Amino acid sequence: MIFSIILAAGEGTRMKSKLPKVMHKICGKPLLSHVINTAKASGIDKNIVIVGNGSDLVQKGIEEEVFFVEQPIGEGVPYGTGFAVMQAKDYIEDDSHVIILYGDTPLITSETINNTIEFHKKGNYEATVLSADFDDPTGYGRIIRDSNGNVTSIVEHKDASEEERNIKEINSGIYCFNGKSLKLALDRLDSNNAQNEYYITDAIKILNDLGLKVGGYKILDKEEIFGINSRIQLAEAEKVMRKRINNAHMANGVTIINPDNTYIDADVKIERDTIIYPGVIIEGKSNIGEDCIIGQNSRIVDSHVGNEVDIQISTILESKIGDNAHIGPYAYLRPNSEIGKNVKIGDFVEVKNSKIEDNSKASHLSYIGDAYVGKGVNIGCGVVFVNYDGKEKHKTIVQDNAFIGCNTNLVSPVEVEEGAYIAAGSTITERVPKESLSIARARQVNKEGWVKKKGLKK
Ligand code: UD1
Ligand code: CA
Q: Would you say the CB of residue 104 lies under 6 angstroms from ligand 1?
């Protein structure tokens, strides 16, 4: 059995935020969720998250299935990474492996976690610390090794001697412990140090003093152990994560014209031969099919896009778009819109909570709200679905192959039956029967010579 204990009780004062630090997002997901997902991808059976500051917000905001344990926080209550781990002690099984992670260190990969576990098992260690060489190790705990390369202790920067401060190998804060040894060490931690905190790092010296072997697994990719304390570091971490995501899509056959200016959330799926132009933002749980073109500055949120869809400078929220549809430029699909195959939603067309069946067109300047639009319907320029009477929203139905002339108002609730035509400029308030023409506007009157008679001629 492998457990993880993910420390997420800290305050994160330097974020200057109402939100707990671990709930700040990169690539669409809270920092803590990235860590949880990585732990899960490493095959860790049970993930224990230690929460304290902002505990309610963390527990409410995390969608992943984890086991939360509260660390008491407050004046006079002990503090520190050791105290945090102690909270999980009762859940740790003797013959298990325990991986300790931080909720504010989201770039760690499952490959590294697995390599650490493997190193730990192979070396028959009771504890293994993940380390790295830093040119500037200021602030970090330093790794002290003996002549055999085994780790004997970790010294915090604040407690370190001049000589120890010259050590470049730092403690990432990520460890693998054998369950029994971890529990044994937790019972012996004290807070006799510069910060009066319980340090989990002291567990290393405790085990070493008991004659138990401790390993140090050094990684080369320092990005992985980058911890976030400020908004600047949040942006830096997002940049690394974004690059990983974009590289993975490109490796899968997606063209991204300028990956430095393309923003794709962690859970987005994109099929091969789709081309993504600069400035595109794809968020949440969106899926994009094959051979699509996602044109510049489009934003797609929690939406499903079929194959061979062309989207230009448009915003698409919680909607579905069928194969070979053309969207934009400057279209706005609001939540719960379902666009069929070969449909055209052209420039400055807004669609909300509506279904538009295959082969229909709304090419310019229309508002389609709370509507059902059948197959092969033509919606002329400037058509408005008048769905709101000032009190309530109503539904409009336009059946297959209807033709709605330019500047028509469809005052809902109203139905246009199959194959009917509506003359341009009509305001439709009643049912339009099948295959009929409806004209609902004043008849044109021409008054000959009127301008001259009025004395208006220049
Ligand atoms: C810790 C390590 C240090 C290491 C560094 C790497 C100790 C004593 N020191 O230092 O050797 O180089 O991480 O970043 O462990 N947390 C809790 N509850 C607490 C205290 C902390 O959950 O009571 C969480 C924090 O939210 C944070 C993590 O533990 O995610 C690390 O705590 P932090 O105070 O930042 O440790 P450092 O002083 O940076
Ligand atoms: Ca820290």
A: yes
Please, what is the average pLDDT of the chain? 97
Atom of ligand 1 at shortest range from CA of 82? 15
137: Cβ below 6 Å to ligand 1?
Answer: no
Could you confirm whether 34 is annotated as catalytic? Answer: no
Which residue out of 48, 50, 81, 136 has the highest number of ligand 1 atoms within 8 Å of its CB and is therefore the one to mutate? 81
Q: Decide: 80 in ligand 1 pocket, CB within 6 A.
A: yes
Mean pLDDT over residues 239-243, rounded? 98
Q: How many angstroms separate the alpha carbon of residue 229 from the centre of ligand 2?
A: 7
Same fold for the pair 2-225 and 368-458: no
What is the reported pTM? 0.94
If you measure from the C-alpha of residue 35 to the centroid of ligand 1, how many angstroms do you get, rounded to a whole number?
15
11 pLDDT higher than 90? no
CA of 82, nearest ligand number: 1
Distance CA 62, CA 241 (A): 19
CA distances from 195 to 13, 74, 302 (A): 17, 16, 46
Just give the CATH number of 252-352: 2.160.10.10
What is the C-alpha to C-alpha distance for residues 71 and 49, in angstroms, rounded to an integer? 10
Domain boundaries, the chain: 2-225, 252-352, 368-458
**How many angstroms separate the CA atoms of 11 and 8, rounded?**
9
CATH topology of domain 2-225: Spore Coat Polysaccharide Biosynthesis Protein SpsA; Chain A (3.90.550)
| Range 368-458 classified under CATH 2.160.10.10 | yes
The whole-number pLDDT of residue 87 equals: 98
Angle between helix axes 31-41 and 110-122 (nearest 10 degrees) is 50
For residue range 381-420, list pLDDT tens digits in order.
Answer: 999 999 999 999 999 999 999 999 999 999 999 999 999 9
Smallest CA-to-CA distance from 325 within 358, 365, 368, 353 is with 358
Label the pairing between strands 344-347 and 361-364. parallel
Encode pLDDT of 441-457 as tens digits: 999 999 999 999 999 98
> Is any ligand 1 atom within 6 A of the Cβ of residue 83?
yes
Q: Give the pLDDT confidence score for residue 7 in this predicted structure.
A: 98
Which ligand 1 atom is at minimum distance from the Cα of 84? 18
> Stretch 300-314: mean pLDDT, rounded?
98
- For ligand 2, the distance from its centroid to the CA atom of residue 409, given in whole angstroms, is 60
Q: How far is the CA of 406 from the centre of ligand 2 (A)?
A: 62
